[in-house]
Amino acid sequence: MHGYDVALKVLLQASTNSLLRQLTGLSVERWLNVEMPQVLSSRVDLLGVTSDDALVHIELQSTNDSDMALRMAEYSLRIYRQFKKFPKQIVLYVGEPKLRMNSRLTGPDSAFQYTLIDARDLDGAQLLASERIEDNLIAILTKLEDQTVAIRSILERIAGLEKPARRDALAQFLIISGMRTLEEIIKEEALKMPILNDIMDHKVLGPAILQGRREGRQEGLQEGRHAMLRRILEKRFGQIPEWVEKRLTGLPAADLDEVGVRILDASTFEDLFPQKQ
To answer: pLDDT (tens digit, 9 = 90+) per residue, 33-77?
Structure first.
């Protein structure tokens, strides 16, 4: 199962109904954990029950599957076999390539259709305005007027969470943002905010950033922190002068983190590294 699949399911189940109303026009009261009892076992992504006891089936799809209509028809019949009622079915496409799937399956004496929605057609502003962090995170997959502004807004919300929730939300955000190839932008913006340690301490993200995986370097933790701080300084203040480079080289890891925090208030290299008397 793809990482994005798990993250999105968790977010959708924990979110308010603002996104679900955009998708279905209905409000889901509870989610069912359903595995179809077949010789070839299959598990639906999300199956919910509405307030009027109707069923809502949502599949998350990141690729264009030419057999999607067939799959959904099979799911529909299996759900009917188990619950004796047909569900309202939606495929939420969250992939980056242009949506090209067919939502209909027809034959000489039969026809089947499900609802196919591209996440980029959804209203991201509504999700960003939600008080639920889950809605805010999902917004990155939708239609947004300004992605960078939205990223900053979401990161500010994440930074305001308690530490355990903050780390979980940041990890989920980075996972699903990969579907829009926004990981690097998010990392750059996150490093400007008071969630630096959450990134550095993350068992997957921390080593990837600190070791400079993007450039193919294999430095250790200390060298990785120096490299990341240098990139931040260059982006904020421009070319690093020689005297600053010398100060950086001699800083231990604990002091590097402190410098990372002071960057938020400094206007020049001199503010950040006061000259020794």
So the answer is: 665 554 344 678 889 999 899 999 999 999 999 999 999 999 999
Is residue 23 within 8 Å of residue 58, measured between CB atoms?
A: yes
CB 63 within 8 A of CB 30: no
Q: How far is CA 65 from the centre of its chain?
A: 22
Q: What is the CA radius of gyration of the chain?
A: 23
Report the Cα–Cα distance between both ends of the chain, in Å, rounded.
59
Q: Which residue has the tokens 């242009």?
A: 98
Tell me how crowded residue 214 is: count the other CB atoms within 10 A of its CB. Answer: 11
Residue 101 Cα distances to 43, 69, 131, 142, angstroms: 21, 8, 33, 18
Residue 177 or residue 249, greater confidence: 177
**Which one-letter amino acid corresponds to residue 183?**
E
SS3 240: coil
Torsion over CA: 253, 198, 203, 177 (sign): negative
Burial of 120 (0-12, 13-18, 19+ CB in 10 A): middle
d(CA 132, CA 251): 40
Residue 21: pLDDT over 80: no
* Cα separation, 102 vs 113, whole angstroms: 9
Tokens 């990392």 — which residue?
187
Residues in the chain: 277
Q: What is the four-CA torsion angle of 19, 24, 27, 30, rounded to 10 degrees?
A: -90
Q: Which two tokens stand for residue 200?
A: 């550095």
- The letter for the amino acid at 49 is V
Which amino acid, residue 236?
Answer: R
Alpha carbon of 218 to those of 42, 199, 207, 212, 215: distances in Å?
Answer: 41, 18, 10, 7, 9
Q: What are phi and psi of 62, to 5 degrees?
A: -110, -5
